[in-house]
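User: structure tokens for this one?
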Amino acid sequence: MVAALLYLVGLITLLGCIAGAGYGAPAMIADFTAALNAGDVNMLDEVADLAAGLRWVVLPGLTGLVLMGLGRIIMLLGAINRNLRGQG
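Assistant:
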């Protein structure tokens, strides 16, 4: 039960981060396209600015992945435990 809840919370967190990043993507694409069309902009600085704009996604996204992983590990250990009890 706890494992499924961990997995579900992690999944919702990760999907929320992806949706939030996708919501802001059109403005970021427009800024990047404008920088490409300007021609006199240092592209490394422009990419660094775009990455800084997505910095808020990294920590919640990784947290969601870790929660999903912990949920799957607990599910696996529970399945192994049930299987071993059935054989013993």
